[in-house]
Design goal:
Layout (H helix, E strand, L loop, with lengths): L8 E7 L2 H17 L7 E4 L1 H11 L7 E4 H4 L4 H15 L6 E5 L11 H17 L5 E8 L5 H8 L11 H9 L11 E3 L4 H10 L4 H14 L4 E8 L6 E6 L24 H7 L2 E6 L4 E6 L2
Parallel strand pairs: 1-5, 2-3, 2-4, 4-5
Antiparallel strand pairs: 6-7, 7-8, 8-10, 9-10
Pfam families: MEDS
Protein name: Anti-sigma factor RsbA family regulatory protein
Organism: Streptomyces sp. R21
Length: 297
């Protein structure tokens, strides 16, 4: 896998004070305002930072869009892919032309655990492939007051404008080389993990009927080919987990991240559906096949 040649301009800025935030944001927004064939730029950031920007911009803020990052980064990293793709389709000019100033919510879900942080670094890396066809300019803002040194160091490796940038192929392979915890000894085995069987198991382990149905659909959508063996299931609501072993390898790092043609999330979209409705989807190579581990929440 290599990074496609495209127009997506994916940048990163690191700052540690309000003054540094303004100093980084204003030139970028001015660049967006001056860019031909583009709408006014959009900023997604912490509410307090948006207020600072409005004050600094004054009359120039008119026409710009300001979105609290707590309204943008509301779910998993895969949900952020859908949010970004939908926003470009609705608001960018032809070819995806728009300047986006984006601050992940590191004080929220993205930074709540090492595992969650890993998912967001994966998203930052895969964005270089996912949005390569678009003429979008994105500046990802990292505040050292909320994003610690480890997060900033990892993020640098996902942004092409840094000297330590790694291609998505290399960085994602490294993330996927991290072993998953083994299933617990008491995990249940479903020899025929069809939707009804998975739904019944999930309901018995505490998921509400609607959520159990979503979890069952997510498990079904995750695999398009034959399995080797049944399914392992464990956990209690909401953290119900299912692991499937596929006969064929799933070796595309973008599997389940590429938005389908239809905007609605619905069964029939394969791993995209699974990633959109579940908090975690981990894929690991098993030699002749793959292990797909799905956690609802």
């Amino acid at each position: 896998m290599s990074t496609p040649q495209g127009s997506f301009d994916h940048r990163m800025v690191v700052f540690g004070s309000d003054d540094e935030w303004i100093a980084a944001a204003l030139p970028f927004l001015a660049e967006g305002l001056a860019a031909p064939q583009e709408p006014p730029p959009t900023t997604i950031a912490a509410p307090g930072k948006l207020d600072l920007l409005r004050d600094a911009l004054g009359a120039e803020a008119k026409g710009m869009t300001f979105i609290p990052h707590t309204e943008w980064y509301t779910g998993s990293a895969a949900n952020a892919v859908a949010q970004s793709a939908g926003y470009l389709a609705a608001h960018a000019h032809p070819g995806g032309r728009i300047h986006l100033l984006m601050e992940p919510d590191w004080a929220g879900r993205a930074g709540r655990s090492t595992r969650e942080t890993t998912e967001w670094i994966r998203y930052e890396s895969l964005a270089n492939l996912l949005f390569a066809p678009f003429r979008t300019t994105a500046l990802c803002a990292y505040d050292t007051r909320t994003a610690g040194p480890a997060i900033v160091d990892a993020a640098r490796r996902a942004h092409p404008d840094t000297p330590v940038y790694e291609t998505p192929a290399r960085l994602v392979d490294e993330l996927d080389a991290m072993p998953l915890p083994p299933p617990p000894p008491g995990a249940d085995v479903l020899e025929n993990p069809g939707p009804e069987a998975v739904r019944a198991w999930a309901t018995a382990h505490g998921l509400a009927p609607a959520e159990a149905g979503l979890f069952a659909a997510a498990v079904t959508e995750a695999v398009s080919g034959p399995l080797t063996g049944g399914a392992l299931l464990w956990g209690e609501a909401p953290a119900c987990v299912c692991e499937l072993h596929t006969a064929a390898r799933v070796d595309d790092p973008l599997a389940g991240f590429v938005p389908p043609a239809t905007a609605e999330i619905e069964p029939g979209q394969g791993l995209w559906f699974t990633r959109q409705v579940c908090a975690y989807v981990d894929i690991r190579d098993r030699g002749e096949g793959s292990a797909i581990r799905i956690q609802y929440a």
